[in-house]
Amino acid sequence: MKIERLTTQFHTAKGVTSPVNDVSLEIPRGAIVGLVGESGCGKSMTAMSVLQLVRKPGKITAGRILLGGRDLLQASPREMRQIRGNEISMIFQEPMTALNPVYPVGRQVREAILLHQKVSRREAEDRVVEIFRECGIPEPEKRYHDYPHQLSGGLRQRVIIAMAMVCRPDLLIADEPTTALDVTIEAQILRLMKRLREEQGTSILIITHNMGVMAQMCDYVYVMYAGKVMEQAETFELFERTAHPYTQGLLRSIPRMDRPAERLYSIRGVVPNLLHLPEGCSFCARCERAAEACRTVPPELIEVAPGHKVRCHRCQEGGDGHGA
Questions:
Q1: 238 vs 27, 40, 214, CA distance in Å?
Q2: N or C: which end of the chain has fewer CB within 10 A?
Q3: Coil, helix or strand for 77?
Q4: Beta pairing, strands 220-225 & 228-234
Q5: How would you write the pLDDT of the chain (324 residues) with one tens digit per residue?
Q6: What value, to the nearest 5°, has the Cα angle with vertex 234 and ends 236 and 7?
C-alpha cells in the first residue's frame, strides 16, 4: 500500500483542523511499518482515513490511497465494505466499542469469515476456534459462546486481534494492539503477527507510542507529530542516527537498564491545539534547539541520508543533528 499526500480535515464551528496533514507513507508487501508518536498526533486518524471510517464533520480532502494499483478514495461504499476485513483489517484500540455486546464473540468473528469467504458455517466456526487458540485465548471452544461482558479487557483485546487476522488480510493495521495485555501475551501476539507476515506475506502497519515494540517489530518507522510526518527511516537507521529533536525526545523518555536510576526525561509542554498551530514548525514551542526560522518558516520533509527523511530546519542546515 502507498499513501500519497493524504489530508483529512474537520470543519467545526471554531475553525478547520487537519489531524492528517499531507501525509505520505509506504507499506511494501510483506513489510512491517511503524507509525509512532504521542497521543493526539494523528496516528489513529491516519488509519481511519485509510479505511474511510472518518466520521462527520471529518472529511478526506486530498491525496491518494493506493492498494494493488487501485485508489481506495475512488472506491464506492459497497467496494469499501468488501475491502474492509478482507483485504485490509484493523485491530481497533478500544475492544469494548469494537464488539457488539448482544452477540457471542465467536459468532462475531465467524460473521467476518462468512461475509468475505465462501465457506460453510462449520468450517468458519472451526477457524474461529483455531484463531482463538493462536491468539492465546484459553478454552477457545468455551469462549466462542461468551459475550463481551464476560471477558476481561485482555481477552476482549485478543478477540479483536483474532477478528482482524482470521481472514488473512493483505494489510493489517494494528492500532495499539497490545495495550491491554501483559508482557507474556504481548510477546505471543507480536510473534503471531510476525508469523502472519512470514506465512501469508501480509503487510502490517503498527500504530503505537511504544518505541520498544517498534524496535522489535518494524522494518521502517514513521514519526508523526501534529498531523505531519516529522521523521522517517529504516528502523536501525532511526535508532542509531536519530535526527529530529522530537524523535530524540521520545527515545530519551524510555527507561534504560544500562543507566543508574534517575528521573525519567519528558518532552516539555504538550501537543499543540490543531486550531492554533505555530506559524513555523509545529514542534518549535517544545524544542530545545528551536531557532528563529523554526518559529516562522514551516520546514519541508527533506532526505538527509538514503531513505532517511526529516522535517527540521536545524537538521537540514547540518547542525548538531544526529544521535539521541
A1: 17, 22, 10
A2: C
A3: helix
A4: antiparallel
A5: 999 999 999 999 999 999 999 999 999 999 999 999 998 899 999 999 999 999 999 999 999 999 988 999 999 999 999 899 889 999 887 766 789 999 999 999 999 999 888 899 999 999 999 999 988 899 999 999 999 999 987 888 889 989 988 888 999 999 988 776 778 878 888 888 888 888 888 999 999 888 888 999 999 999 999 999 999 999 999 999 999 999 999 998 887 777 776 778 889 988 899 999 999 999 999 998 899 999 999 999 999 999 999 999 988 765 444 444
A6: 140
For 288-320, letters b (16+ CB in 10 Å) and e give eebbeebeeeebebeebeeebbbbbbbbbeeee
Cell numbers 484493523 label which residue? 90
Residue that is written with C-alpha cell 486550531 in the block: 275
For 290, residues 6+ apart whose C-beta sits below 8 A from its C-beta are 281, 284
Q: Which amino acid is at 119?
A: V
Give the separation between CA 177 and CA 194, rounded to whole angstroms.
13
In Å, what is the CA distance from 129 to each residue of 158, 184, 195, 312?
A: 12, 21, 18, 49
Q: Which residues pair with 206 in a beta bridge?
A: 34, 174
